[in-house]
Design a protein that fits this description.
It comes from Loa loa. GO terms for molecular function: ATP binding; protein kinase activity. InterPro entries: CK1_Ser-Thr_kinase, Kinase-like_dom_sf, Prot_kinase_dom. Keywords: Kinase, Transferase. The chain is α+β, with helices and mostly antiparallel strands. The protein folds into two domains: 81 residues, Phosphorylase Kinase, domain 1 (2-Layer Sandwich); 119 residues, Transferase(Phosphotransferase), domain 1 (Orthogonal Bundle), CATH 1.10.510.10. The protein is 25% helix and 26% strand. It contains five helices and twelve strands. β5 and β6 form a beta hairpin. α3 packs antiparallel against α5.
Length: 230
């Protein structure tokens, strides 16, 4: 952390705690992406809205914090590269490193399901809306599982709508916890005796709670709990 403190500054978040800003407003990455504002943050990464000065369009920059294992960002990059062109995965535009931490540049998407839900007075989505979202999430998981990866962090805030002409398309986000569950030849990997907890407490399956090996069905269980929440 000390190695990068000189390049960063702190702001208060909504809860009054200090947030170390990984990027500065107005900073330009790779002589192309101008940072406009921070959209969200966690202990492990920060999301910024930026402007692509080459293609004249808004984009998102996701940058790791020093607490994140760099391998997590590489896994997300791998997943997005493998699933490039699939309907429910945000196009990966670029990648790089700044302040000794990695970042990804992706298309800007719309609001996530958790935020949308909060805007409705009963704080519930209509059944037909949940149905339409579910069809697309299941399609996204099918593509991801076919590619040999588990998502392992399905939750409403990782399910987003598109923007503009893509506003009715649902996107699956945040693949940093993904794990390959198949070998290169397609065989299922040998299960571990004990697996670490991965996911969000409210949505994970009993298998995850018991620290047993997970599979595609556990992503589907998390999807089901997410839709119950909606």
């Amino acid at each position: 952390m000390k190695a990068i403190e000189g390049n960063l500054h702190q702001l208060d978040d909504k809860k009054g705690s200090k947030v170390v800003e990984m990027l500065k407003i107005g900073e330009i990455l790779r002589n192309r992406y101008t940072i406009e504002k921070r959209i969200s943050h966690s202990n492990y990464n920060q999301i910024y809205r930026a402007y692509d000065n080459v293609k004249s369009r808004p984009v998102v920059v996701k940058i790791a914090t020093p607490k994140l294992d760099p391998r997590r960002m590489k896994i997300e990059q791998m997943v997005l590269t493998l699933l490039r062109g699939k309907n429910h995965f945000v196009p990966l535009i670029g990648m790089g490193q700044i302040h000794n931490v990695p970042y990804l540049v992706m298309d800007l998407v719309g609001r996530n399901l958790a935020d949308i839900r909060e805007q409705y007075p009963p704080k519930r989505l209509q059944p037909i809306t949940v149905y339409r979202i579910s069809i697309q999430v299941i399609s996204a998981l099918h593509d991801m599982h076919t590619a040999g990866f588990l998502h392992r962090n399905i939750k409403p805030s990782n399910i987003c709508t598109g923007r503009g002409a893509q506003k009715r398309i649902i996107y699956l986000l945040d693949h940093g916890m993904a794990r390959m569950f198949t070998e290169i030849d397609g065989r299922i990997r040998k299960p571990r005796n004990r697996a670490g907890f991965r996911g969000t407490l409210r949505y994970v399956s009993l298998t995850v709670h018991s620290r047993a090996e997970t599979g595609p069905r556990d992503d589907l269980i998390a999807w089901f709990y997410s839709m119950v929440f909606a």
